[in-house]
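Hi C.,

You asked whether I'd gotten around to modeling the 449-residue construct. I have! Everything is below, sequence then structure, no commentary in between.
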Amino acid sequence: MPLTYDVRVYSIETRRDRPKPYRVRWLVGTQKHSKSYTVKAQADGRRSELMTALRKGKQFDVDTGLPASELRALNGSVTWYEHTRAYIDRRWDRLPAKSRRNDADALATITAALVKTTAGRPASRVLRNALYGWAYNKSRWGQEPPAEVADALHWVEKNSLAISALEDPATLRMALDALSTLLNGSPAAGRTVRRKRACLSDVLGLAVERRYFTIPVNPLSTVKWTAPKSTEEVDPASVANPRQVRDLLEGVRTQGERGAHLEAFFGCLYYAAMRPAEAVGLKASQCHLPKLGWGHLTLRGGIVHAGHGWTDDSRAHQDRHLKARAARDSRVVPIPPHFVAMLRGHIERYGAAPDGRLFRTSRGGVIQDTGYGEVWAEARGAALPPTDVASPLARRPYDLRCAGVSFWLFSGVDPMEVARRAGHSVAEAGLREWDGDGASPGGRLGDTR
């Protein structure tokens, strides 16, 4: 609730039957407040303080009943570490496991920089483990940490800056510089910086809401800061053309049983521009696969690997709804006839898991990024010439999604439709400036030979 000038201070009330018989009462807006004292002189002193603030035209906080000056002094004792722990506590139950981990990653990075001194500072590895694995992992708050972790957390608690210190642009830039740098000192990727900066903004927004700052404005809005330059997230040289994609999928297929069952999985990333987590969780019931013509996939979510320590049920994986969508939202992606045939062949040969998943391990488990990553690396070595193997071309399975989006755009699909199919905003749709004959660094997009 807001600060107000609407304050009324009443006479001291005496209640003889109470251990603290002298009560100071005052009204802030429509909210009643009171404080009881054993000695009348104490009550007189407190009432005088309130009257002095009122005569000087000070605003009062409706929730606490305190004058704004007292509230600021009280909030000045709240440290960054205390506030961020409260932030984690507030958000934990409603966040998916991977978002919990991302918050912990961002806050561990920033908190290590917002300290009063480096004297007695724990080793970087120990401090990182203490903050990321314990301080900001609520599932471990009830456990006894190892001695070195407990010592590191005690040091942070003792030396953390006050949250109010982030009103100083110099202090805020310390936090921004920390989140834009990796542990080895190299610049973080642009996407990583944006994610961690968003977390910082949310933390500061909560501080504004709790009136920890003298001015009710998020300090980030007052600082002009540019993240250090880093490599482009989507390197155009990583985009494969359709011929190269076919060669790569053939390289997967020719690896025998170790890779053949993943050909359609990688096909999902290219022909339907699916995220790997969406392909991992794809079920037969989501696939419309006619014998002739185009089909479509109705995507409703995916399976995300978050780690045992971040989920509520201690599983390593968590079922998630579509990224940046409502829980029950879905999106339909049309798929071409040759990919329809590929999926039909996969189902005929390998069937589906009991829960309907198309892609699984030999024991029916969730396929791991490390497992399909190794298959992809071998396929690149077998399908591409040495010069391309040494290049960024399709180095990651995720590059297939970028290639699929780029091919849709080059083929004339409306960018809004591309964004809808891929499940992201128009700005993220992978728009690029191709040269005049439609060639990309990875080869001619129109070349289907």
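If it helps when you're writing up: The chain has three domains: 3-75, 80-222, 240-444.

Thanks,
B.
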